[in-house]
Amino acid sequence: MTSDQQNQTGLKCHIEVLEKIDTVLQERDASLLNSDNSNPLGVALTFLDGQFIRANETLCAMLGFTELELLATTLGDITCPEDQGNDDEKLANLKTCDIRSYQVEKRLIHKAGAVLRALVEVMLVPGADNQPYALLLQIQDIDAAKRLQEQSRHAQKMESLSRLAGCVEHDLNNALTAILGFSQLLEGEFKTDDQLQSFAEEITHSANRAVEITDQLKVFSNLVDSELAVYNLDQIVTDLDGMLRRLIGENVSLDVITDCKTGSLACDRGQLEQVIVNLVVNAHDAIAEGGQITLTTENVDRLTDDGDNESFVRLSVSDTGTGMNDETLLQIFDPSFTTKDRGKGIGLGLYTAKQIIEQFGGTIEVESELGFGTTFRIDFPQARKIDATSPNPTDQETITTGNETILLVEDESDVRHYVARILMRHGYTVVEAADGVEALGIVQDGKEAIEMILTDYTMPRMNGDELVGHAVEDRPDLKILYMSGCTNENRLTLSNLKPEGSPLLKKPFSPQKLMCTVRGLLDAP
């Protein structure tokens, strides 16, 4: 037989083997080696000596090689020397058909030099003569799988924290509604006694401080829908100063430098505060004892794509920590990347921060050098300035009285007594109910000439919206006003409050706010 005939025979056998391989693959799973990236496992075909024949995109991405680069190497070439040969006995049993497949854990070497732990499942592919010819490998990145588990656990913890923060905020706002309300009533009663009035004013001042602290719980809430408003960046950073210092402790110094002339931005304040807290906590984790974190605000002008100048407000967060190398900087916003030790973070913080910033039209950039710290710069388009001196018209209006009958529904007795007291002091007839079920019975009984339902949203047995849904079936003329102490419920006016567009009072509220809202709703057509 001539050499050409031998080559042709060998080529024919190879083609037959590849056809046999395709048949085997179709019998197992036709999608294993698809060119798309839908298969979460790295899949490859190799000869018995480990020489790659084919590889899917998942495996190429996992190892950093192109498929052509893998075809020029073997599985042994990308396996850590300590793990080479750790499955020789199982492989021998596979080749003699004593076993159908086996699994082995190997440390594989990424093209960039990093080491990843992989679980490799090995199956035999017979040749045209049904003799062992090739190996089918399914490779799972164990570290990536564990990161996904960590992400899932982290998401569950954050959801639990969000629920806890919402519950605490709800309960505190209920308590503060009564405290603030009664303290403001005392201020009015003690106008002729300066000392007692000053005591009442101190109570009001302390309660307002508690309201500010309660509002900071929004940072830990899972705010899915944004509540856009225009805020001054200096004010947001200044208001967070105290909480940030408590978070980082005394071993790291915090320096807050505000421009005092920095402009405003349109954002969801709670989400922006979440970003700032995340960046400061990350900076703290990167700093040895005695380091420094600096927050700076300023106005900047940047060129747009059209070559025009556009005004931005900038927040910079700098630290004197360990810094990052170029490889880390390229991955810093990857949702599955983290520089922290196991159990201290999984990388979702910066990824989430970037998503929030971009949601409000902003950008985030990072500069870092090993041994010289890190600086994050966040730019937001500057919004129209707010006239901070303009009074709130609701609080400045003269409180008018009324003689209508109002059904007050509130499960917290302190809040219910406070609201009832205010309404009755201004001429209204108040019928009280401790929950939705009791209130619905009063409406359906028809003995009271009720003109408005003022109801809490979250109550036992029957929520406020469920109560209103039943009540308006019998009395579609009823005016409806909701009140709530939970942040997430404050967005209900934009979604499913019944009737649609019904107003909602955020707890805690002042007597002035309550009375002006009630009177305005009753007078509305």
Give your account of this protein's structure.
Mean pLDDT is 80; it is low at 27-31, 342-348, 386-397 and 489-495. This protein folds into three domains: 17-144, PAS domain (Beta-Lactamase, 2-Layer Sandwich); 224-389, 2-Layer Sandwich (Heat Shock Protein 90); 393-523, 3-Layer(aba) Sandwich (Rossmann fold). The protein is elongated, with a radius of gyration of 33 Å. It has 525 residues and is α/β, with parallel strands linked by helices. The protein contains 15 helices and 17 strands. A five-stranded antiparallel sheet has the order 2-1-5-4-3. A five-stranded mixed sheet has the order 7-9-10-12-11. The protein is 42% helix and 22% strand.
Q: In the CATH hierarchy, what is the superfamily of the largest domain? A: Histidine kinase-like ATPase, C-terminal domain
Note poorly predicted spans: 27-31, 342-348, 386-397, 489-495
CATH arch. level architecture of the largest domain: 2-Layer Sandwich
Q: Class of the largest domain, according to the CATH hierarchy?
A: Alpha Beta
Helix segment tally: 15
Which overall shape is indicated by the principal axes computed on the Cα atoms? Answer: elongated
**CATH topology assignment of the largest domain:** Heat Shock Protein 90
Distance between termini?
A: 104 Å
Arithmetic mean pLDDT: 80
Widest sheet, order of strands = 2-1-5-4-3
Main beta sheet: strand number and arrangement? 5 strands, antiparallel
> Per DSSP, what share of the residues sits in E-state strands of 2 or more residues?
15-25%
How many structurally independent domains? Answer: 3
Q: Whole-number radius of gyration?
A: 33 Å
